Amino acid sequence: MTGSEGGKSDKVRLMADLLRSGATLTDLSCPVCASPIFRLKSGELWCAQCQKKVIVVKEDEEVREIEISSTLSQTESVLLTKIWEINERLKVEDDIEEVQRLSQVMSTLLENLERIRKIGKMRK
């Protein structure tokens, strides 16, 4: 079996797993890879090949709204990751000047996280 045939069977296996888990096949196809789109039990649309959530929009305004919402969500995720990383560094840091610097960075990250969350709430 060639590498491409193995890849095809993996994709079919992923799709079968989705169906077994309760997902349903839709009449939509992925705008990126043209693979069939599945509706998960949660109601989300999912491309098995891209392994990504798919969002269907009908108007440019909706596209812009989704882009903004996605950007806010991604930014929040990055900030939380950085806060966690700084926290881990603070746990082991002995140099007081570095602790002060890391604390200032942590404070800025927390302020930005609060701002992002406020923006998200205002948009709802």
Explain what you see.
The chain has 124 residues and is α+β, with helices and mostly antiparallel strands. It folds into two domains: 52 residues, no CATH class; 64 residues. Strand 2 and strand 3 form a beta hairpin. Helix 2 packs antiparallel against helix 3. The longest helix is centred in the middle third of the chain and has 33 residues. The chain is elongated. The N terminus is likely disordered.
SSE order and pairing:
Elements: H1 3-20, E1 24-29, E2 36-39, E3 45-47, E4 52-54, H2 60-92, H3 96-123
Antiparallel strand pairs: 1-2, 2-3, 3-4
Helix pairs in contact: 2-3
* Number of DSSP-assigned strands: 4
Number of helices: 3
What is the CA-based Rg, rounded? 21 Å
- Strand percent estimate: 5-15%
- Apparent shape: elongated
Largest sheet: number of strands, sense, barrel closure = 4 strands, antiparallel
Count of distinct structural domains: 2
| Strand arrangement across the biggest beta sheet | 1-2-3-4
Structural class: alpha+beta
Compressed to H and E, one letter per element, the order equals HEEEEHH
Low-confidence stretches: 1-5
What proportion of the residues is helical, as a percent range?
Answer: 55-70%
Distance between the first and last residues' Cα: 52 Å
Q: Mean pLDDT, rounded to whole units?
A: 86
Features:
124 residues; alpha+beta; 2 domains; 4-stranded antiparallel beta sheet; 4 strands
Q: What's a quick, concise take on this entry?
A:
The protein is an alpha+beta fold. It has helices at 3-20, 60-92, 96-123, and strands spanning 24-29, 36-39, 45-47, 52-54. A 4-stranded antiparallel sheet has the order 1-2-3-4, covered by helices on one side.
